[in-house]
Amino acid sequence: MDHVNPSHRYRTVIVSDAHLGTPDARGEYLLHLLESIDCEYLVLNGDLIDVWNMQRRGWRGAPATTRLFQQLLRLAAAGTEVIYVPGNHDECFRDYVGESFAGVGLHRQWRHALADGRTALILHGDEFDGAMSSARMARLAGNLGYELLLRFDRLSRRLRDRQGRGHWSLCRFVKSRIPGALGYIRQFEQAALAHGTAEGVDVVICGHIHHANLFDQGGVTYANSGDWVEHCTALVEHHDGRLEILDWARVADGIARDEIGPSVEAEDGSDRAAACG
C-alpha cells in the first residue's frame, strides 16, 4: 500500500459507525486510516453505511466515500480478511449474512481468536437496546435535539477547517456532560459484559453507542471501537494480542491536512442530519 507506515501495522483493525452517506461522516479520516494500515483482519462492525438516512433523505456521500470503498476492496484483494457485521443503520445487509462479496464476508457476529489465545465476540451492539431501562435515552441519537446538535457540529467543523485546526466534536463535548447519556452508556456496557459472560468469551467488542472504551470487569474485557462521526476511533489488536483504542483524529491531525483532505459537506450543499446509534 502506498501509505503504509511501519508504526501502523496491526493484526486486527475494528471500525464501526462510519455512517457513510451523511454529511456528518468523517469519511476523509477513515479513508486516511485505511490507506495507512497493514493488517491481517479488518472488521467493519456495523453502520458502515447509513441506510436509514438514505431512505429518509437520499444518499449524501462525499468524494472520499468512493475512494474509501475502493480501498476496502484493495485491502481484501491484497490478502486482508475483511469481515462486515451489519448494524441497525445498515440492517438490510443482514439478509445477506453468510455471503461474500468481492472478498468481504458478511456475518451476524464474529468470533475472533486473538493472538494471545483469548476469544473475542464482535457484534454491533444494537442487540442490547431492549435491555436498556432508559428507553428514551436509547433513542437520543435519533431525536430532534441530537440532529440540531449535529448541525452545530457541522458549522463548528467548517470554521475549524478554515482556521486549519484539527478534529473536535461539539456533539461529543455536549454528550459527555449529559448525565442521562452517561448513564445509558454504562447500562449498555454492563449488558454487553453480561452477554460476553453468557457466551463464555474473554472479550466482547461492540460499536453502536459512539463511545470508545476498553476495560476489564469480572474476568471479561469490554471493548468499543467508537465511531467516525464524533470521535474517529478504531480498536486495534497488536500482534501479541494486546488491544488498544486508536484515536485516529489525533494521529491524522499531526500530518499535513492536505494529505487527508478537507471535510466535505453533502454534495448538493444541504445540511442533513444523521440519526446515529
Task: Walk me through what this model shows.
With 277 residues, the protein is α/β, with parallel strands linked by helices. The protein has a single domain, classed as 4-Layer Sandwich (Purple Acid Phosphatase, chain A, domain 2), CATH 3.60.21. Helices cover 33% and strands 20% of the residues. It is built from nine helices and twelve strands. A seven-stranded mixed beta sheet has the order 4-5-3-2-1-11-12. Helix 1 packs parallel to helix 3. The two termini are 32 Å apart.
Short description:
The chain contains nine helices and twelve strands. With 277 residues, the protein is of the alpha/beta class.
Task: Label this structure with key terms.
single chain; 277 residues; alpha/beta; Purple Acid Phosphatase, chain A, domain 2; 7-stranded mixed β-sheet; 5-stranded mixed β-sheet; disordered C terminus
